[in-house]
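Supplementary Data S3. Sequence and structure tokens for construct A.
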Amino acid sequence: MTARLNRAQPYALGLFRIVVGLLFACHGAASLFGVLGGVAGTNGGTVPTGTWPFWYAAMIQLVAGALILVGLGTRGAAVIASGSMAYAYFDVHQSHALWPIQNGGELPVLFCWAFLLLVFTGSGALGLDRLFASRSAAAEKERASEPVAA
């Protein structure tokens, strides 16, 4: 049983990355474009362009979420996304109460730790990172096997 689960691990991690990236990108799209209900409490409204920190957070959510979704630059995007969620928790939520359940910060905490996990695990299966890595490894192998010109 353990061997089967170990073989499926890259695919489970890839599906985890896809779901988390999609959810994060949806938050950014809602804030920037008013889709999916828009910003919470605004009846479909958007974040005004350039407002600190909300507009910048929405841009990070959209771009990093999309990159994580497709598995391109996953580790770098996940570092930025995790940091933005840590900032959101400590700047916005922590001042209201100590525990995330009390201050409404469960979502930023979960996103922060999910992205931190992706920093250390990478994209898993089904990501563009692996496609490009396998192509560059094949090209490197081909170059190494070519005869040296005299």
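Construct B, processed identically:
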Amino acid sequence: MLHTLILVAHIIAAVALVALVLLQQGKGADAGAAFGSGSSATMFGARGAASFLSRTTSVLATVFFLTSLTLAYFATQTSVPKSVVERLQVEEAKAPQPRSDVGGGPADVPQLPRK
């Protein structure tokens, strides 16, 4: 349950981070705005978008890194055997052991008298 929640938050943070990076203007766009280019007409004004979008981007980047580390930790904590040898050891441990009180074992072989 927790793994699924973190995975959903990770995907949302990744998509939002990509969208925010694409919304931001490059450093060279300010020079074009000074000469009357149409790129200066932004939703947040000439300078307001830079601080809002950069803060939001840094928060989303932090969330993305934290969810990445958490998902990596969850991936290393699995108890499923990874190799063939580990699988065989698990199957041997689960297999029923022969009972010693039932006939047919080495304890039931009669001993010959020694001379």
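The chain has one domain: 2-27+39-94. The CA atoms of residues 32 and 38 lie 8 Å apart.
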